[in-house]
Specification:
about 250 residues, Rna Polymerase Sigma Factor, Chain: A, mainly alpha
Length: about 250
């Protein structure tokens, strides 16, 4: 490498380092915002590390001619990298996923038959379990990344716009207008208390304890309501998701 080329290379590296320093606070801000929506087992440093990789990819691939500002584009990639890291670290037992999917299927079957929102007692009866067992499934699924992150969290708040690149990502479908509209409709038709919890959690960004204070119920009860709302949304969007999975 001649002197001119080496100098240019050093300049390029210096420019990237400067940009990393400039946007590092963005990575941290997204990490701490996301951390509030994740189980206690998630470590913020892991999110930040994953987010920095997303930032580097953004610096490499950003195309200003596409119209989005760099911060908007980078925010999507950073958030996507963090969520990928959470999914890779998902140690939730298979039994929790299986039971949660069974609840979603029960909700769909009941609501398809009755045309009404399925209640907890109906769902428990359909599954041939006690109401306490049903509530325990809801409680267990709160800590499940599969539902709290990969399903509703990516849909319920800002993630509607923030799908990562998305040809290979399971969240790619969230950028589709049809799914977006279906999701908005499904949220609007949740039972009132579930809709309120979703709104307070994802729009107002209250934590479970704060929502409990608003509703006058315990934090564990809020967890159950939130989990049931997620599973109800999954059940109501099942046909749409299956059609896209098979297309």
């Amino acid at each position: 490498m001649n002197g001119v080329a080496m100098y240019s290379s050093v300049q390029a590296v210096g420019a990237v380092d400067a940009q990393i320093m400039q946007y590092a606070p963005l990575v941290k801000r997204i990490a701490y915002h996301l951390l509030n929506k994740l189980p206690d087992s998630v470590v913020v440093d892991d999110l930040i590390q994953a987010g920095m990789l997303g930032l580097l990819e953004s610096l490499k691939n950003y195309d200003a001619t596409q119209g989005a500002s760099f911060e908007t584009y980078a925010g999507i990639r950073i958030r996507g990298s963090m969520l990928d890291e959470v999914r890779r670290s998902d140690w939730t037992p298979r039994s929790v996923h299986k039971k949660s999917r069974s609840v979603a299927a029960a909700i769909k079957a009941i609501e398809d038959k009755t045309g009404q929102a399925a209640g907890a007692a109906e769902i428990a009866k359909y599954l041939d379990i006690s109401l306490d067992e049903y509530h325990q499934i809801l409680q267990d699924s709160v800590s499940s990344h599969f539902f709290s992150v990969e399903e509703l969290a990516q849909s319920g708040d800002h993630f509607l716009e923030e799908s990562v690149d998305a040809s290979s990502s399971p969240v790619a479908i969230l950028s589709e207008d049809g799914f977006r509209q279906a999701l908005i409709t499904a949220i609007a038709h949740l039972p009132e208390r579930e809709r309120l919890v979703v709104s307070l959690y994802y729009d107002e960004e209250l934590n479970l304890r704060e929502i409990g204070e608003v509703l006058g119920v315990s934090e564990s009860r809020v967890s159950q309501i939130s989990s049931q709302a997620m599973l109800r949304l999954r059940s109501r969007l099942a046909d749409w998701l299956e059609e896209n999975d098979n297309s």
